[in-house]
Amino acid sequence: MYITDLSKAEQIIPEMEGAKDIIKQVPLSKNNGAPVFSFRVFTIKPGGYTPSHKHPFEHMNYIIKGKGVLVMNDEEHPVKQGDFALVLPNEQHQYKNASDNEDFVMICAVPEEYE
Amino acid sequence: MYITDLSKAEQIIPEMEGAKDIIKQVPLSKNNGAPVFSFRVFTIKPGGYTPSHKHPFEHMNYIIKGKGVLVMNDEEHPVKQGDFALVLPNEQHQYKNASDNEDFVMICAVPEEYE
Fold this sequence. Notes:
2 copies of one chain form a homodimer.
Chain A: E1 2-5, E2 20-28, E3 37-49, E4 59-65, E5 67-72, E6 75-80, E7 83-87, E8 94-97, E9 104-111
C-alpha cells in the first residue's frame, strides 16, 4: 500500500519537442510496485500545451482542475474539471490549457511499460 | 476518443457481501475500446464502506471528493480529496467514508480483465 499526494511527487519538466509550459508528476507507478499501469499527472500552465503526438497505447485522463481542449484531427473538444477522457492507441492528440489564468491539471494513466 | 463525466455514467449498486451504501460507475473501460485498464468510480455514502477483501490485481485510487479511511491489517490510514493510493495485488483492504454528511468519491482503476 502506498498513499501520496501531488505535493510529495517530484515536478519534472519534460524535454518533449512541441510541448510548452507543462509539468509532469508520477504519483503512482512501477516504482511503487504497481504491476500493470501508472498514474501520471500533467499540469499545463495558461498558454501551454502538450505535444501533438500519437503512441501505441491508450491514455485514460481525469481532469482534476481547470479547463482545456483535447485536439484530435484538427477538432477541439472542450474538457473541464470532472471530465474523463479516453485516447485510444495510435490516435493523434494534443491537450491545451483553455484558460488565461488557471492551471489545467489532469491524471494521465498509461500501461506501466510506457512510463 | 471518448469524453464523458459522472452524470452520464450509469449508477450501479454492487451486489457485494460486506458492502454498505456504495454506488459504482464505470466512466472508461473496455466497453469504450480501452485495451489495458479501466477507470471505475465508487461513491461511498456517509456510514458506508466497501467490503474488506483482496484480489490478485492492483488498484490505483484518486480521491475526487470527501474524507475516508483505507483499512489494511486493522490499521486505518486516512485519505482525503486529492490523495492517490495504491493497493497492491493480494493486499487485504477496505475503504470507509469518514464523514457524517459528505459522500466519499474515488477513482478505482483496475486492469480491464477484472472489470
